UniProtKB/TrEMBL annotation, chain A:
The organism of origin for this protein: Streptomyces adustus
Protein name from the UniProt record: Substrate-binding domain-containing protein
Region feature (Disordered): 29-49
Keyword field contains Cytoplasm: no
Periplasmic binding protein domain location: 54-309
Family assignment from sequence similarity: Belongs to the bacterial solute-binding protein 2 family.
Keywords, sorted A to Z: Signal
Superkingdom of origin organism: Bacteria
GO molecular function, one term: carbohydrate binding
Listed PROSITE patterns: PROKAR_LIPOPROTEIN (PS51257), TAT (PS51318)
Primary subcellular site in the record, as a coarse category: other
Pfam families: Peripla_BP_4
UniProtKB/TrEMBL annotation, chain B:
Residue span(s) of domain ABC transporter: 8-245, 259-502
Protein name listed in UniProt: Sugar ABC transporter ATP-binding protein
InterPro entries in alphabetical order: AAA+_ATPase (IPR003593), ABC_carbohydrate_import_ATPase (IPR050107), ABC_transporter-like_ATP-bd (IPR003439), ABC_transporter-like_CS (IPR017871), P-loop_NTPase (IPR027417)
GO molecular function, one term: ATP hydrolysis activity
Keywords of the record: ATP-binding, Cell membrane, Membrane, Nucleotide-binding, Repeat, Translocase, Transport
Compartment list: Cell membrane
Record's GO cellular component terms: plasma membrane
TrEMBL record, chain C:
Annotated compartments: Cell membrane
Membrane topology: Multi-pass membrane protein
InterPro entries assigned to the protein according to its UniProt record, in alphabetical order: ABC_transp_permease (IPR001851)
UniProt keyword annotation of Secreted present: no
Primary site of residence: membrane
Organism: Streptomyces adustus
Domain of life: Bacteria
GO cellular component, one term: plasma membrane
Keyword Transmembrane helix among UniProt keywords: yes
Protein name in the entry: ABC transporter permease
Length: 346, 505, 339
């Protein structure tokens, strides 16, 4: 729990702000803004530099978002002529993933990017890599110890809930006795609790809004359909729905369509392409989605390349890249959806 | 001895199961140092009584005293603590553990309460095995690798590893060779000399005469006689108590004429390596041929190989001139063979099902159209077959497990009768069948033969083979050592042949 | 000596007249008691639902919802009931549903429209069932192991096909089938399929040689073999049947969710086994009841529904599900031993 709180603290600190800025700097490809860091530390750019071998170990891509993570990492690496990427077979088995990472250590890759199947369980192998002199970029699921990574970059689950709650709150703030429903993700994951907590905290600012029901699906279309159908039957009238995950949202939308309901607004989560398209078309209940961007994998490659070439990153004054970056969970709605369309995952 | 309170005194023990009153007020007194025999037919309540004694069943009524003190045998452990050990017919050993581990299971010698002292266990086990006359059994071997007789010794060693005052032995001689039986009796004598009481269950009267001190006879859940002198009570009286009437084996009369039809079953050079030598056999309609032999003589193996349940290594079987596919039960059944196997419950019956379904299972295609079962036709045919064999109860919708052994056997016969089979293979047809019900079963078999069935009969009871069969093949160690019409043989001669393998003349 | 607690007897000390106990009436009566006890549980749930959420629970739409939600797992459970009755187990049902649902929703398959999706789903189910059946019946593999291997491979293959992506169905005729316009006299088509599969399963188990042989193989495989039944072929057919049911279920799931995903059918194997067991099918084989299995499925679905309507969370739901399994089995043991 304590590490949750500290992450949350981090969010409200400067990191969130800087991360937002950094993300733009990192992901935007235009280098017309040639402003380097205040010191003479060169910032990473697209110009070929020292060759860097990056080892990438992720979990099995059995979910659209995880699949997008892999794609983002691979495509980003392909862009750089000075980067070669060693990708392991994705695995959800902790022991197997440890073995894969140890192999990468033995191969003496320059930098490791690790999205652990289980952050706590892989802390030891992260430490091992760091001791072997290989800097580790810890992606999304955080290790137990800050010694096990050089840089953490990940999404913000609490912030997702918070922003979803704020968006819905602003839409409903003039509506007396507004009712809100939440379709959560897999309940035995900590991130689901964090998202719900953020959502609840945001709604506290709007005394006219009440959360009347919450059911947990399992990040799958099937469970999304099943749970949403029950929620719709349970709540004959409500004004807004927050769904944690766009994948299960496919099922939720199906249930909404089958029930013939369109009397509320829906906000999704994660940022799937199908959700973006629906938002753009604007002919259904889905009006917005809160990002949990898989582009973080591309950023991780950038960070790894920068580490390997001993450079900093643009947009920051420091010599070194930060130790921790928490991404901003932006809300995508009709007004800005075109900007994000290319990052949507399938 | 008489003035002391008995070691064990059970009185008025009653125990009911759904639908059955297994024990109905049984009294049993056992003195220290005696061999007390428990006699009774299957279903008389012997098993239930010893399970009560072992603490495995709780009696509904009655009291149990141990050395004059009333006790409650709440669990097998409670019984064991008093010094009561039970050696079940179906041995309760763990095959994947060693002999020593089995002997000390549940009371392993330990250091500091949890570290098992393996060496101590093996040493004490070796001492027990030596006392039981089997020093050749290695305490470190796995029980699964031992023979049935050796496993029984291990079970006995386990009993003796506790401070035992009373040992219950449930048909201990059933799986033993004659010299192993002698060893068993020596063990029993040693135990009683040490003041240990033995409750000995057997249906072999001659054993009871040899080692028994007193006999209690159970019938229908009641003790019909308690504490009779084992050596002097006339056999006729004991049998009468068990069956409720005086019975002798009554065999149906043989037809006078020799069967002259063409053989329906021809076996030529049939053999299985290591089990039985090449065998030639012709079986004519109306004929009953008996295979006599001891356990291990290959008699059951021969039946099962003819039936296709085992694949022969040589030879052929043909029915009406058509050669059967070797090792195919379906080919055999299709050609008109039927088997009533030795282990009825394990090999023949669907215990959860009704008699009808047990009877119809081999003839389903007769009552079905495109896989659709005509249940009325099925019931009618099953009922007819069951009536034909006077199966009791008359209603074939009862679950087969509620039937007595003899009626279960009839259900198996009805299956083949319904199928219209030509050759019936009977393996130990009266095992587990009450003495009183046997005569009826013999009559049924003879009637089926008279109706044109050919019957091949295997039995370890020589009088049964001699009484029922027309022709007898005597087997010894997988070889036919003698063939003769049954009326030319007598029990002594067959026993000589079975043991010696040479004609006694 | 203390009297042990024993089930109530007619009259203490009286000998039950064994001959007149009519055990032949006890057998069907016992089956009825089991069914009745399940119906009792279901009725109790309806009462609980009706009291806690009268407006939402006692509503035609909710009945349609519960039955629809039961359809997919229900069809799988019918197949599972046959397999368990025959003494086997099929751990691969969920994975087969996943594989069939993604194979039937690939871009290539969708080009063939409604029929393409339907037949692909059924053929994939049958294919997996065939492999299971061959491995178990003719390869001599233990069902637990063979179907566990199928579970892993089918899930892996499903993942490979989808790359973890959700495959949206774009065939209108398929999507329509899951929507209100297609209801026949208020009955959703999915529920009709479920009903048909149930009736067919009941008839097959109770009225055909196939059912008889399945029961015989499960009750005593050696006895069945010696009675002349082709046990191996029967086993092959049984796993084929289970696979086919998975294929049908996959199609229903495609219709219901409008998509195919490799995570489909998650833990169906456990739900189907649990429903069959609380329904009264013996895990050791030899006795099976389609009625009981379907009641088991309906009980689980109704619980989920009531909990969701009352906004109770999934942790509570899981605890309740476990408790219901234990309670149902205990009640059955009791009714079986006292009756």
């Amino acid at each position: 729990m304590s590490h949750t709180t500290s992450r949350r603290g981090l969010l409200f600190g400067t990191a969130a702000v800087s991360a937002g800025a950094l993300l733009t700097a990192c992901t935007s490809n235009d280098t017309k803004d040639d402003k380097t860091a205040a010191n003479n530390q060169p910032a990473a750019d697209d110009k070929p530099g020292k060759h860097v071998t990056i080892g990438f170990a992720g979990p099995q891509a059995d979910h659209g978002w995880l699949n997008a993570i892999n794609d983002n990492a691979k495509n980003r690496a392909k862009k750089y002529s000075d980067v070669s990427l060693e990708v392991t077979e994705g695995s959800n088995d902790t022991a197997q993933q440890i073995g894969q990472i140890e192999t990468l250590i033995n191969k003496k890759v320059d930098v490791l990017v690790v999205l652990p199947a289980d952050g706590k369980a892989l802390t030891q192998v992260g430490l091992k890599a760091m001791r072997a002199g290989i800097p580790v970029i810890n992606l999304d699921r955080i290790f137990n110890s800050a010694q096990a990574y050089r840089c953490y970059i990940g999404g913000d689950n609490y912030g997702m809930g918070l922003n979803a709650g704020r968006y819905i709150g602003e839409k409903l703030k003039d509506k007396p006795n507004a009712r809100v429903v939440e379709l959560a993700g897999l309940d035995n994951l900590e991130l689901t609790k964090q998202r719900t907590q953020g959502f609840d905290d945001a709604l506290k600012n709007y005394p006219n809004i009440q959360k009347v029901a919450r059911q947990a699906a399992e990040f799958t279309v099937e469970s999304g359909q099943a749970k949403m159908a029950q929620l719709l039957q349970a709540q004959s009238k409500f004004d807004a729905l927050w769904n944690h995950d766009d994948d299960q949202g496919v099922g939720a939308l199906r249930a909404i369509q089958q029930a013939g309901r369109d009397d509320f607004l829906m906000v999704g989560g994660a940022g799937a392409l199908s959700a973006f398209q629906a938002i753009k078309q604007d002919d259904g209940v889905l009006k917005a989605t809160v990002l949990y961007p898989p582009t973080m994998a591309a950023s991780a490659i950038d960070l790894a390349r920068a580490l390997g070439q001993a450079k900093g990153v643009g947009g920051l004054a420091e010599f070194e890249i930060p130790a921790s970056i928490t991404l901003y969970s932006a809300v995508v709605d009709k007004t800005n959806v075109d900007q994000y369309m290319s990052t949507g995952f399938r | 001895m008489a003035q002391e309170p008995p070691l064990l005194s059970m009185s008025g023990i009653a125990k009911s199961f759904p639908g059955v009153r297994a024990l109905d007020g049984v009294d049993l007194d056992v003195q220290a140092g005696e061999v007390h025999c428990l006699l009774g037919q299957n279903g008389a309540g012997k098993s239930t009584l010893i399970k009560v004694l072992a603490g495995a069943h709780q009696p509904d009524e009655g009291t149990i005293s141990w050395r004059g003190e009333p006790v409650t045998l709440r669990s097998p452990i409670a019984a064991m603590r008093l010094g009561i050990a039970t050696i079940y017919q179906e041995l309760d050993l763990v095959e994947h553990l060693s002999v020593a581990e089995n002997v000390h299971l549940g009371h392993e010698p330990t250091t500091a309460g949890f570290v098992v002292r393996g060496r101590t266990a093996r040493t004490s086990t070796a001492a027990l095995l030596k006392r039981l006359g089997h020093p050749e059994i290695d305490p470190a071997r796995l029980v699964g690798e031992l023979s049935a007789a050796q496993q029984q010794i291990v079970s006995m060693a386990r009993a003796l590893s506790h401070d035992v005052r009373l040992i219950v032995m449930d048909e201990p001689s059933a799986a033993l060779d004659p010299d192993e039986v002698d060893n068993l009796f020596r063990i029993v004598a040693d135990l009683t000399a040490d003041g240990v009481a033995v409750v000995y269950i057997s249906h072999r009267l001659e054993e009871i005469r040899r080692i028994g001190d007193r006999v209690t006879v159970l019938k229908d859940g009641r003790a019909v006689a308690g504490g009779l002198p084992a050596k002097t009570t006339p056999t006729r009286d004991v049998v009468a108590l068990m069956t409720g009437r005086n019975v002798e084996y009554v065999f149906p009369e043989r037809p006078e004429r020799e069967p002259d039809a063409e053989p329906v079953l021809r076996v030529r050079g049939l053999a299985r390596d290591g089990e039985f030598d090449p065998l030639d056999l012709d079986l004519r309609p109306g004929e009953i041929v008996g295979l006599a032999g001891l356990v291990g003589s290959g008699r059951s193996e021969i039946l099962e190989t003819i039936y296709g349940a085992r694949r022969p290594t040589a030879g052929s079987v043909s029915v009406d001139g058509r050669t059967l596919r070797p090792g195919s039960v379906r080919s055999a059944v299709g050609a008109g063979l039927g088997l009533a196997p030795e282990e009825r419950k394990a090999q023949a019956l669907l215990m959860l099902e009704s008699v009808t379904r047990n009877v119809s299972v081999s003839s389903l295609s007769r009552f079905s159209w495109a896989g659709w079962v005509d249940r009325r036709a099925e019931r009618g045919a099953a009922r007819a077959a069951v009536r034909e064999l006077s199966l009791r109860p008359d209603n074939p919708e009862v679950p087969v497990r509620t039937l007595s052994g003899g009626n279960q056997q009839k259900a198996v016969l009805a299956r083949w009768l319904l199928r219209g089979c030509r050759v019936l293979l009977l393996d130990e047809p009266t095992r587990g069948v009450d003495v009183g019900a046997r005569a009826e079963l013999y009559a049924v078999v003879r009637r089926l033969a008279d109706d044109g069935l050919a019957v091949l009969l295997v039995s370890s009871e020589v009088p049964e083979v001699l009484g029922l069969a027309d022709r007898v093949l005597v087997l010894r160690e997988g070889r036919v050592v003698h063939t003769a019409p049954a009326r030319e043989l007598d029990e002594h001669r067959v026993l000589d042949l079975v043991m010696e393998g040479t004609p006694a003349s | 000596m203390t009297q042990p607690v024993s089930p109530p007897r007619d009259t203490a000390g009286k000998i039950p007249p064994v001959g007149r106990l009519t055990p032949w009436r006890a057998l069907p009566a016992r089956a009825d008691v089991r069914t009745l006890s399940l119906l009792g549980v279901l009725a109790a749930l309806v009462v609980i639902g009706g009291i806690t959420k009268p407006d939402e629970f006692l509503d035609t739409r909710n009945l349609q919802l519960v039955l629809t939600q039961a359809s997919v797992i229900g069809v799988v459970t019918v197949g599972m009931t046959f397999v368990i009755t025959s003494g086997g187990i099929d751990l691969s049902v969920g994975a087969i549903v996943a594989l069939a649902s993604v194979w039937a929703t690939t871009v290539a398959t969708q080009e063939y429209g409604f029929a393409g999706i339907l037949f692909t789903a059924m053929l994939v189910g049958l294919g997996c069932g065939l492999v299971n059946g061959l491995l178990i019946a003719y390869g001599g593999m233990v069902p637990f192991i063979a179907t566990l291997a199928m579970l892993a491979s089918a899930r892996g293959l499903a993942l490979q096909i989808t790359d973890g992506r959700t495959q949206i169905v774009s065939i209108d005729s398929v999507l329509k089938l899951g929507e209100r316009d297609s209801y026949v006299l208020g009955i959703p088509p999915l529920v009709l399929v479920f009903a048909l599969v149930t009736i067919a399963g009941w008839l097959a188990l109770n009225r055909t040689t196939f059912g008889r042989r399945s029961v015989a193989v499960g009750g005593n495989a050696e006895a069945a073999r010696l009675a002349g039944i082709d046990v191996r072929r029967q086993r092959l057919y049984l796993y084929l049947l289970s696979g086919l049911c998975c294929g049908i279920a996959a199609f229903l799931l495609i219709v219901l969710s409008g998509s195919g995903q490799n995570t489909n059918g998650n833990l169906y194997e456990l739900d189907a086994i649990a429903a069959a067991i609380i329904g009264g099918t013996l895990l050791s084989g030899g006795r099976g009841t389609i009625t009981g299995s379907v009641l088991g499925v309906l009980i689980f679905t109704t619980i989920t529904n009531i909990f969701a309507l009352n906004n109770l969370q999934s942790d509570v739901q899981q605890i309740a599900k476990g408790a219901i399994i234990v309670a149902a089995v205990l009640v059955q043991r009791r009714t079986a031993s006292t009756n």
